[in-house]
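Let us practice reading a record.
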Amino acid sequence: MKIDFEETTDDLAKRINIHEQFGSRDIDSWMLQVLNLQASSKILDIGCGAGKQCYSFYHHLDGQADITGTDVSRDLLAEAISKNEQTGNAIKFQLLDFNLPFLMAENQFDLISSCFAIYYAQDIPWTLAEMHRVLKPGGRLFTTGPMPTNKQLFYDIIREATGKDIPPMPGSSRYASQIYGTMQKLFSTTEQHIFENPLTFESVEPYMVYTRASMSEDRKLWNTLFETHDEFEKVMSAIEKVASARLANDGKLIMTKVVGGFIATK
């Protein structure tokens, strides 16, 4: 299934910033705890974006790892590379489309991570098989993605504001249902870990910053709710009205991120 999707540097940065400012838990710390990384590991991060996970791994291991970050977005890779001077260019970054064969030898990585990315694959079994191929025997694949109960408040407000159904999201509609089952078929062992992070908003403005960055026209995920910029702005106005009413009634808006961390061992 082809996913018509694009991510912009600005929208991604805004959502990450909101998570850090208004969330009560740190997902990077949770990932590091779950993974228990070992020094001297050879790590491949697929869908690395601006390099967030690569740099987290690098600093956690005090630079004692061979890390490669890949993404299909040249803009996001350019941002990742611009930060690499701080490490002495210790992390390698390269263009990779996970819908195409990986130009990599088999059996070479101790860990492959793909955080909030794998569910955009056109053919999930094929992409996971490529990841499996380049992992060493005993190597691990770690993925993260939204679970079905993720951000219920966010979707409830959109439904109330628009009177329309939420279009299927590639993450919550595919991650737990399709990806974990495919992992179980391909890998020797699999395990699930759940991360919950309540984001608490006491004013509507940051909530709307998050909403605009999530529903951005550039991302092409919400076209059933709007087609033109004017329609997008009307939807934003309706959402802000509903969110403001809920805030006035409840005193705060609490939107809980529910993330699944799947670990599969070759």
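A brief commentary: The longest strand covers residues 189-201.
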